[in-house]
UniProtKB/TrEMBL annotation:
Listed name of the protein: Pentulose/hexulose kinase
Protein family (similarity comment): Belongs to the FGGY kinase family.
Occurrences of domain Carbohydrate kinase FGGY N-terminal (ranges): 14-251
Gene3D superfamilies per the UniProt record, alphabetical: 3.30.420.40
Classification of source organism: Bacteria, Bacillati, Actinomycetota, Actinomycetes, Micrococcales
Residue ranges occupied by any Carbohydrate kinase FGGY C-terminal domain in the UniProt entry: 262-454
GO biological process terms held by the UniProt record: glycerol metabolic process; rhamnose catabolic process
Length: 484
C-alpha cells in the first residue's frame, strides 16, 4: 500500500468543515511536503429550539459559510493566490426541505430531536429490519434519515437536501446528493451504490425526493454570480464534491501505510471501524449493529457509531454553569492519576443523546450497574475515558470477527487524537499500538480530494495518505499492561 503522491506546488483550496458544535473555513495549500492548513474563519454551531423542536439554525450557519469564504478570498488575495475550488463536509443524516423555487421551507431538524422515535415502528412494519440491512447495510439508529423522513407530514413538491448538499446548492444552484452522505440515509443500496428506490416507494416517498448522486471528486458547479460577488471570488470558482460526510473525509486522511488498520474518528461522536472493499451484510453484522457507509474511492467504512467526547463536553457545560471551569488538560491529568478499574457506563446508550445535566446522568447510569461514581469532575472524566476506550476495544474486536480481518494498528484522528489519556487507555485496552493524529484529518481529506480533482495531486488513497503521513505530526502510544 506504500505510495507517493505526485504533487504540483501552488494548489490552494477552501474547505468548509462543519461539525455539530462548531464550524471552520480553512485554506489548504498543497505542496510536495504535504498540506498546510490555515483556519481563516471559525464559528459556533449547535442545536436550538425552534418551532417546538431541536433544529439547526441553518440561515445563521450559511451566513457564517459566506463570511468564511469572504475571509478565504481576502487571505488568498493578499498572498497572491487563486482559490481553485471549494469543498464542503458536515455531519450526516440531517437534511433541509427545499421547494420548487429553491427556498428552504423550515430550519432543518437535528438528529438530536426525538421526533423520529415514533416513526421507527411504522417504518419497520413496511420494511423488515433484516431486509433493510441486507440492502443498505446501515446501522440502526433512531435518527437515521429514513425515520426522520417518515416523521414528516407533507413532502409534496419538496426535495430533501442533506446539509452539505444544501450548502452546495445555495452556492451553485445545482442539486445533487454526495454519495458518502447518501449512504447514511437508510435509502441507499450498499452494493449497487445507488438509491434503493423500492424503499422510497414502500414508504410512500417520491423516487426523486433526493437529487441524483454525485461522487467525491466530481464538480457540483461554479458559484452563482451573486454568491461570487458577495464573497469576492471569481465566478468560475468551482464547488467540488468531497467526502461530504465528515467521517468519509477523515478516513481518507488516516495516515496508514498498510491495510491492516482500524480507525477511530474521535470527536463529538466516535466512529470506530475498518476500511473494506466490500460491505458486510450478514445477519450477524446487523445484530452487532455495524454500518456499511461509503468512503472516498468507493471504499466501505465498516464501523459502529459510538458515543464520543460529547459526554465530556456536556459535562464541562454543566460544570461551567455551576461555576466550575477547569482547564481540560488539568482535568485529564487529574483523571489519569486515578487508579484503573473504576466504574464504567455504556457510552452508546440513547439516554446520553440529548443535552441535560450530563454528570448526573452518568452517575445515575453507574448506579444502575450497582456501582457508585462520586460527584467529582476528575472521577466522572475518568469514567468517560475508561468507558470510551473499552467500547473502542470491543468494537474493533467485533469488526475483526465480522469482517474476517486482523488489525495490527489503531489510528485515532480528529479532536480526540489530542486526548493523551484516551489514546493511552485505548492502546492499553486494545493491546495495539495507537497512532494519534492528524487532528485536522477531516479538513485534510476534504482538501486532498479537491486537489486531486484539480490535478494538483495524483494517485489513490495510498498516495494521499502517504502525503498526510509525511506532513503531519503523529504521536504513538504503546500498550502499558500495568495500567490495565
Amino acid at each position: 500500500m506504500n505510495g507517493h503522491a505526485s504533487t504540483v506546488d501552488g494548489g490552494v483550496f477552501a474547505a468548509v468543515d462543519i461539525g455539530a458544535s462548531s464550524g471552520r473555513v480553512i485554506l489548504g495549500r498543497v505542496g510536495s511536503d504535504g498540506v498546510q492548513l490555515e483556519v481563516v474563519h471559525r464559528f459556533p454551531n449547535g442545536v436550538v429550539e425552534i418551532d417546538g423542536g431541536l433544529r439547526w439554525n441553518f440561515d445563521a450557519l450559511f451566513a457564517e459559510v459566506l463570511e468564511g469564504l469572504r475571509a478565504a478570498a481576502t487571505v488568498a488575495a493578499v498572498q497572491g493566490e487563486r482559490i481553485a475550488s471549494i469543498g464542503i463536509d458536515t455531519w450526516a443524516v440531517d437534511y433541509g426541505l427545499v421547494n420548487t423555487a429553491g427556498e428552504l421551507t423550515a430550519q432543518p431538524f437535528s438528529y438530536r430531536d426525538d421526533r423520529s422515535r415514533a416513526a421507527v415502528e411504522p417504518v419497520h412494519r413496511k420494511l423488515d429490519p433484516a431486509r433493510l440491512y441486507a440492502t443498505t447495510g446501515l446501522q440502526f439508529l433512531q435518527f437515521n434519515t429514513i425515520y426522520q423522513l417518515a416523521a414528516e407530514k407533507d413532502l409534496d413538491g419538496l426535495q430533501a437536501l442533506l446539509i452539505p448538499d444544501l450548502i452546495a446548492f445555495l452556492l451553485t444552484g445545482v442539486r445533487r446528493t454526495e454519495a458518502t452522505n447518501a449512504s447514511t440515509t437508510g435509502l441507499f443500496d450498499a452494493v449497487a451504490g445507488e438509491w434503493a428506490t423500492e424503499f422510497l416507494s414502500a414508504l410512500g416517498l417520491r423516487r426523486d425526493l433526493f437529487p441524483p448522486l454525485i461522487q467525491p471528486g466530481e464538480t457540483f458547479g461554479a458559484l452563482l454570480p451573486d454568491v461570487a460577488s458577495a464573497v469576492g471570488l471569481p465566478r468560475d470558482t468551482k464547488v467540488v464534491a468531497v467526502g461530504s460526510h465528515d467521517t468519509a473525509s477523515a478516513v481518507a486522511a488516516v495516515p496508514a501505510r498498510e491495510d491492516d488498520f482500524a480507525y477511530i474518528s474521535s470527536g463529538t461522536w466516535s466512529l470506530v471501524g475498518l476500511e473494506l472493499k466490500h460491505p458486510v451484510l450478514t445477519e450477524a453484522s446487523r445484530e452487532a449493529n455495524f454500518t456499511n457507509e461509503r468512503g472516498v474511492d468507493g471504499t466501505i467504512r465498516y464501523l459502529r457509531n459510538m458515543g464520543g467526547l460529547w459526554l465530556l463536553s456536556e459535562c464541562q457545560r454543566t460544570w461551567a454553569a455551576e461555576g466550575f471551569r477547569p482547564e481540560l488538560p488539568a482535568l485529564l491529568q487529574a483523571a489519569a492519576a486515578l487508579p484503573p478499574g473504576g466504574p464504567q457506563i455504556n457510552p452508546d446508550d440513547p439516554y446520553f443523546i440529548a443535552p441535560d445535566n450530563m454528570p448526573e446522568r452518568i452517575r445515575a447510569a453507574v448506579r444502575l450497574t450497582g456501582d457508585v461514581l462520586i460527584d467529582d469532575p476528575a472521577a466522572i472524566t475518568r469514567c468517560i475515558m475508561d468507558s470510551l476506550a473499552t467500547g473502542y476495544a470491543r468494537t474493533i474486536r467485533d469488526a475483526e470477527k465480522l469482517a474476517d480481518r486482523s488489525v495490527e494498528m489503531v489510528h485515532v484522528v480528529g479532536g480526540g487524537s489530542q486526548n493523551q489519556l484516551l489514546c493511552q487507555l485505548t492502546a492499553d485496552v486494545t493491546g495495539r499500538k495507537v497512532v494519534a493524529g492528524p487532528v485536522e484529518a477531516t479538513a485534510l481529506g476534504n482538501v486532498l480530494v479537491q486537489a486531486r480533482a484539480a490535478g494538483a495531486v495524483t494517485g489513490g488513497l495510498a498516495e494521499l495518505r502517504a502525503l498526510v503521513a509525511a506532513g503531519s505530526p503523529l504521536q504513538v502510544f504503546t500498550p502499558q499492561l500495568t495500567r490495565l
